[in-house]
Structure formats: C-alpha cells, structure tokens
Amino acid sequence: MVPFKFKPAAGLPEVLIIEPEVYIDERGWFLESYRRSEFERHGIPTEFVQDNHSFSARSGTLRGLHFQKPPAAQAKLVRCVAGEAFDVAVDIRKGSPTYCKWVSMKLSSENRVIVWIPVGFAHGFLTSSAPTEIEYKVTAEYDRTLDRAILWNDPRIGIRWPISNPLLSSKDAKAPLLDAVDNSFVWAKPEK
Known about the structure:
The protein is mainly beta. Helix content is 5%, strand content 42%. The chain has helices spanning 36-41, 170-173, and strands at 4-9, 12-20, 22-25, 28-31, 50-56, 62-68, 76-82, 84-91, 102-108, 114-117, 121-127, 132-138, 147-149.
C-alpha cells in the first residue's frame, strides 16, 4: 500500500498537498508523516535540517507571511498536529507566471494533510481553533539576518483570509508590502 497521495495545489503546482494513509483500529490510528524515498520520488529534498513547532493558544492567530532569503532560503513541509489552521503559500519569485498568486488549504489534526512549500514561496497560517499546533520541517536553519515578512493583507496579493482582524505579532503587523520587501527570488524557467 502507498503511504501517501501527492497532488499539486490548484493554481500553484509546485506546492504539493500530501495526504498520508491512516491506519485505524480499536486502539486509535497510525500514519507515516515522512518517508524519505517517497518524498524524494516526488521532488521533495531528502535533507531537512531543522524542525519547528508552533503553539497558538487562541483562534484567530495569524503567523506570516514569512520567508527566508538565500543563501538560507527555506522550503517547508508543514502539518497541523493539534487543532486547525487556514494555511497559505504565496509565489514571490519575480518573473514567475504565478507571481503574487496564492493558494490555501485547511490543515487540521483531523484531516492530517501535509503541505510542501518550496523555496521562493512565502508562508503563513491563521488558526481557526484553540489551541492549534503546527509542526514543520525546513531545508535551511533559521537565520535572523535573512528572515523576512510580507504584510498579511497586502492588497496586491489579495488573500481571502477567513477573518479581518487577526491576532498578530508586532513584526507581522509592521511587515512591508510585497513590492517593498527585500526579496531576491527570481523564477527560472524549468528545463525540458
């Protein structure tokens, strides 16, 4: 049996929605959240260098939109282990045919969906239950000097968040618009 189903996100095919096979019996359930060979086969790197765990005590907490610049650009493998979140990825690669486009998905401890967000995409999420815990693996270690944020409600991006007045950190509340952020990602046309 294949332990995962991989499908491209509608409109942003580089973002992958991953549904793990869940094995349920009278004791509860079991799933594999990562298998190197399967993820590698679908183009997801085999080396993750840091795991992050975010706890949000309140519903309506928004974290994002975040990314890290090269040489410490991060791809992320994200899942919700408790609660529920509205998760968003935004293409910020200048020159990309999908530049400024976004995709959202519901991540929850019930649906157990995992999302792959490649380098060149900003990421954010809004909690829709309390508490909510998000875990994510990243391909580069955190570097404060390369950490960047984009304003969560940038009108050019136009994300349709489920609420209009989220709980934000001061960093996220003061983040610049996409056009003003220090962003060096440039799209490279895939080789055939």
